[in-house]
Amino acid sequence: MRDQRTREMLDQDIRRWVDKYSRERSALIAILHNVHRKYSQVSAHAMEEIADYLGIHPVEVYGVATFYSFYNAEPKGKKIIRLCRTISCDMQGKRDLVYALEHRFGIRFGETTRDGKWTLEYTSCMGWCDQGPALFVNSKPYTSVTTERLDAILAE
Amino acid sequence: MTERKGPILFRPYTAFSGMRKAFEMGNAKVLATVKDAGLRGRGGAGFPTAMKWKFALDDISKDHQDYSKDRFIICNADEGEPGTFKDRVLLEEQLGLLLEGMLIAGYTIRASTGIIFLRGEYNYMWDQIKGTILRWRAEGMLGENLDGKGFDFDIHIRMGAGAYVCGEETALIESMEGYRGEPRNRPPFPVNAGFNKRPTVVNNVETLCQLPHILNEGADWFKKIGTEESTGSKLLSISGDCSKPGVYEVPFGVTIQAVLELAGAVGIKAVQVGGASGICLSAHEFDRTICFEDVPTGGSIIIFNTTRNMREVLVNFLGFFMEESCGQCTPCRYGTECLLDGILQLSRGECSDEYLSELLDLSDSMAIASKCGLGQSVANPFRSIIERFRGEIYHG
Ligand SMILES: Cc1cc2nc3c(=O)[nH]c(=O)nc-3n(C[C@H](O)[C@H](O)[C@H](O)COP(=O)(O)O)c2cc1C
Ligand code: SF4
Ligand code: FES
Domain extents for chain A? Predict the structure, then answer.
């Protein structure tokens, strides 16, 4: 029942975004962006719907969605923590944060907590190298993160 | 906010003066001034800006005669090179300069549309950028008939979605058209067949921000800053082992040593110039200079003190390339993996010195056989770090 409702909402949303951005191929990324932001996932069903509107094969949508690191086809946590693993952050104490985060959630990087709330992932350089270590909680960047500050950041 | 000072980008500026100057001059004179100033692209490759513009302007082939619509100026704000964050600072602090720069470029190549390709990681700036664009539209600084002579120009934003390779201009265009961000074969070049197959100029954020100042102060003023072949200033993004990391504007031609002093870095054994795709220099080379004739950089400066292990640095860079390779061509996709495996094996003492020579040859082949700059530049950190810190590759 609940799945049914989510699906209807997703269908409506996709329709709305297609109307907003156009049915041209070049609208694809913007549509994916919106789907992902709201549903933290681009499901197979969403891909089929989008493909239908744009008049392309679902495989095309799949190919694009899986190319970009921001989108995921599998369900992930409501909040995705993406920790920068590039060199400048690495040198500024990234490792301590890895341990702290894995301990706190009882999962490894690349995994999602059982309650579906949190996912831990790595990302490449985020553009905050002078204020590392840096991480995203969903799309919000946090800089100069310390293990002491984690609690406050995660509580937001 | 930090009070920044610098010879060009961080000097005082009167809003809209550059664009008004451009309208006064007319597009032929703008082009001549930018050419005379010797402005080169700040995105890394250093291609002469005026030359790129002229290619796009001159493309009146087949169906491109119609100047009125559908030429594009794209601002490359995909900043993804490890250790680079100066475009973020420009977007946050000098957005007006950027929009004016895009407008001037558009006016010169007769484009009516400017697009900011903003990396997904900078999504948090969307509202600020969009808000400024809307305000400019309301004030008549963007839109139709801008100079009263029928120049139409508007600016849009497109988001990236987390792929370093999309900073490469043809991959960027693929992404904007709704495809996987895989670099194209060239020719055709974007100046002839870019976004929607129309003449398209792709310029870095910093390149565009220089334009209003060049028009205001003149080519001669600009040429007095920097070196013979690298005129003007460069923004450096400095990170790593130093007490004052951040963004600095320096004239081209500064020594690495001067940069280290600026950033408060002592006890330094290596500096990586140009990010993961750049080269590593060791202490006896710190008298070398930052400019296209000597050590070029898109702006990334990463500093390593004597406690750092350079194998770990190299492994980190190779991991970056493996993650970010689009996988389209074998030398890059498979070669990077071989290099990384090889280094890890060497560090465990599982293979010989001879094998390291083979890996160096492989990296050279990748530089020749890879399709785009990503695969081509893996050899830069690989060779430069191994040549300077061979001992650290084996143990440490
Ligand atoms: C893998 C790769 C990534 C790149 N990333 C960027 C980037 O983030 N920003 C940028 O301006 N140029 C980047 N470039 C260079 C662009 O292809 C292009 O040369 C540049 O945007 C041109 O602008 P400019 O002439 O003003 O420097 C990249 C090139 C490659 C091969
Ligand atoms: S060199 Fe690498 S990133 Fe570039 S096209 Fe080939 S596989 Fe893709
Ligand atoms: S290295 Fe982490 S933000 Fe650049």
Answer: 4-67, 79-155
Q: Does A127 contact B122 at a Cβ distance shorter than 8 Å?
A: yes
Any CB–CB contact under 8 A between B326 and chain A? yes
A68 in contact with B, Cβ within 8 Å: yes
Phi-psi region of A16 (alpha: psi -120 to 50; beta: other; left: phi over 0): alpha
Residue A152 clears pLDDT 60, i.e. is over it: yes
B121–A141: do the CB atoms touch at under 8 Å?
Answer: yes
Q: For residue range B140-194, what is the model confidence (pLDDT) as tens digits?
A: 999 999 977 789 999 999 999 999 999 999 999 999 999 999 999 999 999 999 9
Domain of residue B294 covers 233-305
B320 token code pair: 């970056």
SS3 at position B317: helix
- Taking only the tens place, the pLDDT of each residue in A106-143 is 999 999 999 999 999 999 999 999 999 999 999 899 99
The whole-model pTM stands at: 0.96
The answer for B 58-117 residues in CB contact with A (under 8 A) is 79-85, 87-88
Q: How far is B31 from chain A (nearest CA, A)?
A: 31
Ligand 3 atom nearest to B85, measured from its CA: 4
Beta strands at B113-118 and A135-137: parallel, antiparallel or unpaired: unpaired
DSSP strand pairing (A135-137 vs A118-123): unpaired
Which ligand lies nearest to the CA atom of residue B182 in the structure? 2
B83-107: per-residue pLDDT in tens?
999 999 999 999 999 999 999 999 9
Of B162, B118, B112, residue with least CA distance to B142: B112
Q: What is the CATH number of domain A79-155?
A: 3.40.30.10
Q: Is A143 in the pocket of ligand 3 (CB under 6 A)?
A: no
- Burial code (b: 16+ CB inside 10 Å, e: under 16) for B276-300 equals bbbbbbbeebbeebbbbebbbbbbb
pLDDT for residue A84: 98
Q: Which CATH architecture has domain A4-67?
A: Orthogonal Bundle (1.10)
| Number of domains forming the structure of chain B | 3
Do residue B291 and residue B356 come from a single domain? Answer: no
B346 lies in a domain? yes
* Token pair 């509107």: residue: A53
Give yes or no for B146 touching A (CB within 8 A): no
B112 and B250 fall within a common domain: no
Tell me if B6 is assigned to some domain: no
- Position B148 scores a pLDDT of 79
Query: Cα–chain-centroid distance for residue A122?
Result: 11
Q: Please report the pLDDT score of residue A6 as a whole number.
A: 87
In this complex, the residue of A67, A125, A141 whose CB is nearest that of residue B80 is A125
Question: Which pLDDT tens digit goes with each residue over B298-351?
Answer: 999 999 999 999 999 999 999 999 999 999 999 999 999 999 999 999 998 888
- As a whole number of Å, the CA-based R_g of chain A is 18
